[in-house]
Amino acid sequence: MISNQGWINLYKPKNITSFKAINSIKKNFQITKIGHAGTLDPMAEGVLPIAIGKATKLIPYISIMEKEYEFTITWGSQTTTDDSQGKILFESNYFPTKNEIEKKIINYLGYINQIPPKVSAVKINGKRAYKLFRENETYTIEPKKVFIESLNITKHSTDKTSFKIICGKGFYVRSFARDFALDLKTYGHISSLKRSKVGKFSQKTSILLDDLLKIGQMHEGINFISPTISMLDDILAYEIEEKTDIENLSFGRSIKIDEEKIINSSSINLDKKNIFLFKKGDVVSIGKLDGNLFKPNKILI
Q: Which one of the listed residues 41, 82, 83, 282 is annotated catalytic?
């Protein structure tokens, strides 16, 4: 039997949607509850964090983590989807030099405003943008504030440049390619895209979708299922030891905890901060402290 909660660090291949990838896992292993953090485009490959069972309640905490992408911009053409799968909208014979690109990078570090691609999962009046696009509807997408921590060129040729970026929640690499190219007085689109990291989920420790499906029958203790607490980065955590505390939490009651035993709590104000309580690697509750009294907001037992 599979644990009632946990994470799979999946490596999604190209030419498949994130939904189809997790649906194939759900059917193959007969999992009743499954979800993923941070959708990857069908043309993109890379790390896709999968939540099993009660870990699905923790997806928002994974979605806000930093992400690392490796991608290539092809210069000279803009497409309807801002990647190589769309139809060409505009073309230019001008290709920027490596020196010109490097000079512009500094303007994109930190917080910037970004308009998501026309073909994206952004909701407009309750409907996904990609659905409106397919239906030939006219619509506008509002800009969003996004964050770029670092951006570096990894390879450059006349008509293509490859980059590595570390960015925050809600960042669209396709939008960056479109806007960056326009800033360089040309057009551009994404011709390859790989997500190499999401928080503690990295390409190095991921499992390929085909390899996962070949296993055929999942069981406890198998090494690709990570405990829920292990993938939550930089959080305040506390391990429950008493059985009575687990029982009280299961009924939504507050319990007393020893503040000195809270992991990562050194020299920070615990007031109004989320505390994650766990037992044997599994998160059992999320809540806040009132003195030494833990008041649960979410129960995962």
A: 41
